Amino acid sequence: MSWQLTLITPDSVTHVYEWTSPNPIIGGVTAIVDPHGATKQIIFRARQDLLQAPPRGYVFFRAPPDGTLVAAGVIVTCPPLTSPGAGPADTDDDALERITAIGLEQLVRDSVIGPRLFEEDTDVATIAFELCDLYAHPDLLVDVENFPATGHVLNLFYRPESTLAEALDALIETLPGEGRWYVDALAQIRFVYTPPPEPEE
Amino acid sequence: MATIQYADVVERQLLPIDAQDIVTKVRLVVAGNRAGAEPHELSVTSNDPEVSMTDARLVYHPLPVVVEYEAPEHATYGCVRMFSLKDGINAFLKPTDAGIPDPTVLNFVNPGSPSAVRDGDPATFATYAGADGGVIEYPPIENCFGYALMLHLESTGGTFPSMVGQPPGTVFVRMDPGYGSDLAVAEAVVRLENTLKASYSYFVLPGYAGAAVENGAPGPFTGFSGSLQLGIVPDSAKQVSRADVYAFYPLVLNLPLLLDIAAAEIRLPAQIPQRVTVEGFVAPAVEHTIVGWPDGDYTGRVAQQQYAGGRTIIDFEQASVPVGLGLTADVLEGERSRRVAVQNEIRSASYGVMMGERQ
Questions:
Q1: Closest among B37, B39, B35, B63 to B265, alpha carbons compared
Q2: B347 vs A169: CB contact, 8 Å cut-off?
Q3: What are the distances in angstroms from CA B152 to CA A178, B95, B96, B112?
Q4: In chain B, which residues have their Cβ closer than 8 Å to the Cβ of A160?
Q5: A35 touches chain B (CB under 8 A)
Q6: pLDDT tens for each residue of A6-15
Q7: CA A54: distance to chain centroid?
Q8: pTM of the model
Q9: CB A40 within 8 A of CB A76
């Protein structure tokens, strides 16, 4: 099986395969992910007049051989939609063809939390889930299953008008051990916590 | 604006659209919490022997006063940012604004039209007349978040520290949220101290976080939209010897101004950013028109201009890199990588203790 790139815009869903002809994507697709599967970047070149990938459109990349969904991102750099691609002598081929998408964590940074006040002992993961459920970008999926309890509680949390990303970072920093949040290739926000190892007796 | 002949155009190239920092919805924080700062908690103790609970502790988490502006493009991009109101901007209506009515008064001499307490003139004032108590009261006004006060007060009344029982001669300001008593926001009452030298003060009171819908309140809090009173408790002993009110009026959000400020922060991606190189010198301007453009005369908003080699390089809609510094898309990529690296550096360097200390 070849690679597959899915472009989602407010108006349409477009699937592009390696064998699509004429193929708006020139060459292949490069996807960069971190060890946990969070997308860092998706880069490819395309004829915008054929692909019509708008700024802030979403791209999902499935890698060969089995078409596993490995990366998802939001387009942050792209040629204008009328760009016909570059010729061999063009010195500005990057401007005419290159499209760059970054991970969907950008949508978490684009979300602002409101005055949700936590005044009772509440698990850190529960706070994170409620904030995401209330304030996350509507195109992100928030499932309580992705916020497993940490076993650590806070009796006060209140950060109105912070970005959701800052709030999640602040929650992570209250935990001993290792914690992180990210958005996976299915656009699900995940809050992961690994407690520190037990001291040896 | 300059009119450029297409014959003078040497080169034209499209620029990559930079959609990294888009803002389609602005939350302008007026009071209660500077955007991005740690919110604070106020804690006061009541030690009045007449209060049924001694040492009652009231904890107050301010509900930020926020004005929100949403561009039509928000349905497409969904990018929200919060901004603080810049210092020096008055977020509230002037006292003489048509949106602020004259108050009703009882036992105050309040001359003038608009009356002395809201004419903006520090030399005019309303005078308390009598011993039967008095009140200056404004009717319910939406989006009221405090009051301005300039007062000369001489009183020996109201010696109890609290408002319980409203001792004779107490001078106070009461702000009514306009809700029923079963809601999270109670009326705010402040007892005024003697002030022998009148000075102009703004008192801004954000609501309490419990008044937010996400914290269980039945509806959004829109300010202390009930009545606003400056009152004197009836005082047969004439303990209030002098109460001259130079200014007393509600602080009502100046929504048209604040919405304009918020709208100015909207950042949308350029549609067709392009760089046009023109022979000769073109004076800087906000817009240029290129006559004879193949698709019809083109008028574009200028983002920046450069002058090099006897030519003018005009960037329309979006500023790009200086001439000769490399590929635009590469520079954008590099800028973003650098910004992420700097943010990570700041975060690790300024590791702070947040609420709920790390153990």
A1: B35
A2: yes
A3: 59, 19, 21, 19
A4: 32-33, 39, 63-64, 209
A5: no
A6: 999 988 999 9
A7: 17
A8: 0.83
A9: no
**Could you say which of B33, B330, B355 has the minimum Cβ distance to residue A94?**
B330
- When CB atoms are compared, the residue of A77, A110, A112 closest to B329 is A77
CA A44/CA A58 separation, integer angstroms: 13
- Between CA A72 and CA A66 the distance in angstroms is 17
Contacts 24+ apart (CB under 8 A), A24-27: A24/A48, A24/A50, A24/A51, A25/A51, A26/A85, A26/A97
pLDDT along chain B (359 residues), means of 10: 87 88 93 59 53 54 91 93 88 92 90 86 87 88 90 72 61 74 55 75 84 86 83 80 90 95 93 90 91 88 89 89 66 71 63 38
CA–CA separation, B36 vs B46, rounded Å?
32
Is B203 an interface residue toward A (CB < 8 Å)? no
Q: Choose from B12, B17, B73, B213 for mutation: most chain A CBs within 10 A.
A: B17
Question: Is B190 exposed, middle or buried, given 0-12, 13-18 or 19+ CB atoms closer than 10 A?
Answer: middle
Q: Could you tell me the two tokens for B30?
A: 């007026």
DSSP state, A141? B
For residue A16, the SS3 value is strand
Phi, psi of B203 (to 5 degrees): -120, 110
Spatial CB neighbours of B67, under 8 Å, sequence gap ≥ 6 = B27, B28, B30, B253, B255, B258, B259, B262
Q: For chain A, give percent helix, strand, coil, nearest 5.
A: 20, 35, 45
SS3 A200: coil
User: Which residues, including other chains, have CB under 8 Å from residue B352's CB and lie 6 or more apart?
Assistant: A173
Going along chain A, which residue ranges are E strands?
Answer: 4-8, 13-17, 25-33, 39-46, 58-63, 68-78, 98-103, 122-123, 153-154, 178-183, 189-194
Q: Please name the helix (run of DSSP H) or strand (run of DSSP E) that holds residue A51, with its range, or none.
A: helix A48-51
Angle value at C-alpha B185, between B182 and B186, nearest 5 degrees: 80
Q: How does pLDDT run across A8-56, given as a tens digit for each residue?
A: 998 899 999 988 989 999 988 999 998 888 999 999 999 999 999 999 9
Considering only the beta carbons, identify the residue of B61, B269, B329 that sits closest to A94.
Answer: B329
